[in-house]
Write a structure and sequence with these properties.
Strand order of the largest sheet of chain B: 1-2-3-5-4
Low-confidence stretches of chain B: 382-392
Radius of gyration of chain B: 34 Å
Largest interface: A-B, 35 and 38 residues
Order of helices and strands of chain A: EHEHEHEHEHEEEEEHEEEEEH
Oligomer: heterodimer
Radius of gyration of chain A: 21 Å
Low-confidence stretches of chain A: none
Mean pLDDT of chain A: 90
Strand order of the largest sheet of chain A: 2-1-3-4-5
Shape of chain A: elongated
Number of helices of chain A: 7
Number of strands of chain B: 5
Number of strands of chain A: 15
Shape of chain B: elongated
Mean pLDDT of chain B: 77
Number of helices of chain B: 13
Structural class of chain A: alpha/beta
């Protein structure tokens, strides 16, 4: 089941998008479609009620809360949302990219562009499954999403797992943890540390900077694998 | 003689020390913090003087070697600010190299001068000086060769490697035949010596030739790249001219269109008017489609390739927001987009559902380019499937080398029936 929200103040364009979506997924995948002619209703569903869709098709030119303002609110609550801007105006494309949309669809070419965007989005959704891992420290046992792990590093004979906002010391070697997580999103930066590439902000030949501005040294033999993991991660998300 | 001997010894020591740094630099130096060659010379001069002082106390003792090794490794660590164990391993390798070259050269020199090798090492003989000079020449050639090959990542073609390897083997065979045939006859020492020096000169000449040939090979590839880029630019210029003339024509047509609409309204032919407007609209959509990426070079290439793709019936979509300042130079950006789009178009000439999607944007501090297209047959992600290999094989290779020169990453992958070319370049501007 794939969930798609379509938001446009013009019923004509909602119908158009609905037809293309319906036709594309016909026989392939069941689709739950929701339509909104006011952006406030969409915000209410996603931001307030936390009912997250997989894809949002969003018009830019809307009264009151326009597409960009809506996109900002959506991205702030749910950064992984696949946003497809849906507009007649080509001049908005630069402004639009601040919100890291998955695609920018021109209504004039909606037949081709929306279809291709749906194909790419579906491919991405199919290949992303959230994995969980159980971490045991001396005084607690917690279940975390692996996407919440920023990095982990060797600390004596144990491992420090740095999550967003906290650190847990677990009784496992780095190798055990690395093979347990087994995700292409994680890459070893030197023999004592493994990083989740989604949290890498920038890199150089000998270190990486995380989103939190923390800097970590990269071993010379690992620069190549760090780069290729980064390219694969972001490459699949644009 | 003693004075000359000690001066020679000092020169050997100095050369060994300098070569040690050159050798170490190949593996230990941090690319971002290059060490000036002056530092090597300034360190080597007093260092080798110290070693000579030690040697004066006791010539070639094992204690001296160990002190030399430890002191030298310490200096290297200070100069390169490198990892301790790695430095020790590299310097140990260097010492082994020096030892091997010394042994070979000195044993040859010992035979030529009619000394035993132990005698040669432990006395101030002319044999030691000859052996010393020749072995230092070989050491210099070896170390600079290693340094050039490792640090500059020179691409030497297989042909040249085989040629130089074959040449060296032939030289070694010839010299050993000469050595064993003539070596034992002490009367022919002078002939043997000149042959030996000739061999050394030949080895040096081969080495220089190899470096020169490889450099000219790189130049040739660069020239190829530039000429290919010129072809692109010329082609896209023509496309732009075409677009402009189409626009001029459109302005002219506009007047006529208004006249037609006016007359249709005047005659009250609403159905015909509707049909006319619909026809005009679809032709306008076609004429007005021009992709803006934010970068004029990218605009030129993308729109030129769009025209080509359209002629093959390939739908083309672009989502691009290129910032004003990017690390990539215009010519490199043109080359990357041109090569990848040419490949994408060519791969789809016989596809049933072709498409090309271009995505260019900055995420975090990464400048990303992604070009997606359909490709239902299997692909070779490294080279070309084109027939004219000499001219076209350079496409992906040049993209790869451009991306590497910016410390970026280029991947080409196939999932199901879709091929994705992804380029990532640090965006630190």
């Amino acid at each position: 089941m794939i969930k798609i929200d379509i938001c446009d103040d013009e019923p004509l364009w909602i119908d158009k998008a609905r037809d293309i979506v319906g036709e594309y997924f016909k026989g392939k995948q069941e689709v739950e479609l929701n339509f909104f002619d006011k952006s406030q209703d969409l915000i209410n569903k996603i931001v307030n009620k936390k009912e997250y869709p997989d894809i949002v098709i969003l018009d830019i030119d809307m009264p009151k809360l326009n597409g960009f303002e809506t996109a900002k609110l959506l991205k702030d609550t749910y950064p992984d949302i696949l946003l497809l801007f849906y507009t007649v105006h080509e001049q908005y494309v630069f402004e639009a990219f601040q919100f890291q949309p998955f695609r920018y669809i021109r209504k004039t070419y909606v037949e081709t562009e929306l279809k291709l965007a749906l194909e790419a989005a579906w491919h991405l959704i199919e290949n992303s499954h959230e994995k969980y891992i159980i971490l045991k420290s001396i005084d607690e046992t917690i279940k975390v999403k692996i996407s919440e792990i920023v990095y982990f590093e060797t600390n004596k004979r144990r491992c420090d797992v740095h999550l967003v906002g906290r650190t847990i010391n677990v009784r496992k070697t780095i190798k055990e943890l690395y093979s347990e997580i087994d995700s292409p999103e994680f890459v070893m930066i030197h023999s004592g540390a493994v990083v989740n590439v989604r949290y890498i902000k920038s890199y150089s030949n000998y270190d990486i900077t995380l989103d939190s501005d923390e800097r970590l040294v990269v071993g010379r033999n690992h620069t190549k694998s760090v780069r290729s993991a980064l390219a694969k991660y972001w490459g699949s998300r644009i | 003689m003693t004075k000359f001997f000690w001066i020679s010894e000092y020169i050997f020591s100095l050369l060994e020390c300098l070569m040690g740094f050159v050798f170490g630099e190949s593996f230990l130096a941090n690319d971002n913090k290059p060490v000036s060659r002056k530092v090597y010379i300034l360190t080597a001069i007093p260092f080798s003087a110290g070693m000579i002082a030690l040697n004066r106390i006791d010539l070639l003792s094992s204690v001296n070697t160990i002190i030399f090794f430890i002191a030298f490794s310490l200096f290297s660590i200070c100069i390169f600010r490198s990892h301790i164990i790695k430095t020790l391993v590299i310097e140990l390798l260097f010492f082994l190299l020096v030892f091997v070259i010394d042994m070979i050269m000195c044993s040859i020199a010992a035979d030529i001068t009619g000394n035993s090798i132990s005698n040669l090492f432990n006395s101030m003989s002319d044999g030691r000086i000859i052996g010393g000079y020749t072995s230092k020449i070989v050491l210099m050639i070896t170390c600079t060769a290693v340094n050039k090959l490792v640090s500059q990542k020179q691409i030497i073609s297989k042909k040249i490697l085989v040629l130089s390897f074959g040449g060296s083997v032939a030289l070694i065979v010839i010299s050993s035949i000469l050595y064993f045939e003539l070596g034992r006859d002490k009367a022919s020492n002078i002939i043997l010596m000149s042959v030996f020096l000739l061999m050394l000169a030949l080895i040096a000449a081969t080495y220089i030739a190899v470096i020169n040939i490889s450099e000219s090979q790189i130049k040739k590839e660069e020239n190829n790249l530039i000429s290919q880029q010129n072809i692109f630019l010329e082609r896209s210029l023509k496309e732009q001219e075409k677009t402009f003339s189409m626009w001029r024509k459109s302005v002219h047509d506009y007047k006529n269109t208004i006249l037609v609409i006016d007359s249709l309204i005047a005659q009250g032919k609403i159905d015909e008017l509707g049909e006319f407007v619909h026809r005009e609209q679809s032709s306008f959509e076609h004429k007005s489609e021009y992709f803006h990426t934010g970068n004029t070079t990218a605009d030129t290439i993308v729109n030129a390739k769009y025209a080509t793709a359209l002629s093959f019936g390939i739908p083309f979509t672009v989502n691009a927001a290129i910032p004003e300042q990017i690390a990539l130079s215009d010519i490199h950006l043109a080359s990357i987009l041109g090569n990848l789009l040419d490949n994408a178009i060519e791969a789809q000439t016989d596809e049933t559902e072709p498409f090309i999607h271009i995505q260019i944007s900055v995420i975090n501090s990464l400048f990303m380019i992604k070009i997606t297209n359909r490709c239902s047959h299997s692909i070779n992600t490294h080279t070309t499937s084109k027939k004219d290999k000499d001219m076209h094989g350079i496409g992906l290779k040049s993209v790869r080398s451009i991306v590497q020169s910016y410390d970026g990453e280029f991947t080409l992958e196939a999932h199901d029936d879709i091929v994705e070319a992804i380029i990532m370049i640090p965006h630190n501007v």
